[in-house]
Amino acid sequence: MRTLSILSRKGGTGKTTLALHLAVAARASGLSTIVADLDRQQSAVDWRRLREPDDLRVEAVKPGALFPRQQDLARQGADLLIVDTGPSVEGDVEQAARCADLCVIVARPNFFDVRAVADSAVLVSGLFRPAVFVINQAPSRRSGLEAPAVVRAVRDLQGLGHPVAPIGLRARAAYQHGVAAGLTAQELEPHGVAACEIGALWSWMFAALWSTDDHAVAGPYPVANAAPEIRPAY
User: Fold this and answer.
1) In Å, what is the CA distance from 175 to each residue of 92, 140, 152?
2) Could you give the angle at the alpha carbon of 232 between the alpha carbons of 226 and 234, nearest 5°?
3) Range of the domain at 110
């Protein structure tokens, strides 16, 4: 089993939205996937209650219980655990990072978010955990060019000692509309640009998590219809 922990010390960066979208993409690729909701607001658990009965599991887990729950799920044969954390709770974030095979540090492309995630970068470095930054809610390109704010954010994040994922998420209404309906963008608009965007990011995450493992599953979420716009210059 692999564990993906979604981190940010700042609220409003879209950690829960990213965690849920990746979970649905992972399940669509054939992985047995569980979301552990460590956020004390339990937004992921609330979202799960809006859904029709299906096999996507979202569990409220206290930080102190994360490691034993992780071990239980591994013994049960789960493929992927995605850990959604809350903002600004040092112990919760540290526990999630310790349990992770890959830490995903989420930031919007602005000064305050980039500054806020510096502490998360230091934390995961001190724990010797692999990590990657994912830029969320980025403005769309214009005339094929990234907005200056995105270029600055990529440069500043790279200076924090971890790579920036080559696929970022744009500010798209489909993400919010989907979550509000108990869905994800790829379920709301299966052929939409947001669905392709998430598919591309999940494919990259899948490769990062299982690159050295001969894992007998269907493989990454399909991205055949991915539009060129979703592949940022960074």
Assistant:
1) 26, 15, 24
2) 145
3) 2-230
Q: In terms of DSSP H, where are the helices of 1-147? A: 15-28, 43-50, 66-75, 90-98, 111-116, 118-126
CA 211, CA 208: separation in Å to the nearest integer? 6
Residue 214: predicted pLDDT: 40
pLDDT: which is higher, 193 or 222? 193
217 vs 22, higher pLDDT: 22
Q: How many CA atoms lie within 13 A of 220 on its CB side?
A: 19
Cα separation, 91 vs 88, in Å, equals 9
For residue 147, give the CATH number of its domain.
3.40.50.300
> The tokens of 41 are what?
């607001």
Total tally of structural domains belonging to the chain: 1
AA letter at 110: N
pLDDT score of 105: 94
